[in-house]
Amino acid sequence: MEKSTVVLVDATQYGADPAVVRVIERRFPLVVVTKQDDLGAVYEAQEPGNRVITCFEFDFPDIGSLSMLSEAKREFTSVPMLMFTEQHSEALAVWALRTRVWDYFVKPVIEETVVESLNRLNRLLTESSNRDRRTTIHQKQPLPDDARFQKHRGEDRVVETAASYIDHHLADKLMQADIADLCGTNSYQLSRAFKRVYGITFQEYIVRRRIEKAIALLHNNSASVIDVCWAVGFHDASHFTKMFQRHTGMTPSQYRSKWLTARSEVTIPFQLSASGPVRI
Questions:
Q1: Is 25 left (phi over 0), alpha (psi -120 to 50) or beta?
Q2: Which string of DSSP letters, residue by residue, matches 160-193?
Q3: Phi, psi (5° rounding) for residue 55?
Q4: pTM value?
């Protein structure tokens, strides 16, 4: 089956994620452009009859960059669009759904999931091109990963519910007794369940998730260290720095400096080919 050309719009602060680029270019002709490029001109430059899929990649999407996707969707209604983002929230996923984004991915991406989505879309485009090349392809947007609960029982379900609540309330004061009550259990059972599933206590899990979230937020250079500290539920900067250094071996400022230096060494050129978050 003939492959559609994938146009990857780099709307990130630091450059397209090499992992996302590799996943796509191994299987589809790929054109990487910036948010300053004219999408209409890019589409017109394709060979007559070529089908096009557009992917918008974000790290920390703001109103301006999201408006760009929304406007492109309204202007080029026959071109299906996918969205990749590092910063994720339920509100952002709902926005993508309402904008009629074909698929929504949170980085780091799962290669098989991205490939499956692109292949399915490529098949639909091939079928529609035989009838009407201007057919608009839409798909009901799936729920974000944190809402796709598997059907577990007992302790696994308790941990799943508690972990989801924690992830959505990292900036808040999290009391073990309150969360246990929310999950229909007691503090002792909740702690035992976390120890069995994750190998760490309930309180250790909260600290690790806060540090992981802080690591992701530190990639946004417009957020100060103190902003990140409060955003992940630490209300004392010195305690935040101490815990961050204990888990990563660096202070928040040292981590950001090291990450920015490493990121600046990666360049993704304009190309046309034939074809985690950090875990502690």
A1: alpha
A2: HHHHHHHHH-TTS---HHHHHHHTTS-HHHHHHH
A3: -115, 125
A4: 0.52
Domains of the chain listed by start with CATH number: 5-144 (3.40.50.2300), 154-262 (1.10.10.60)
Q: What pLDDT, in 10s, does the model give residues 234-248?
A: 989 999 999 999 999
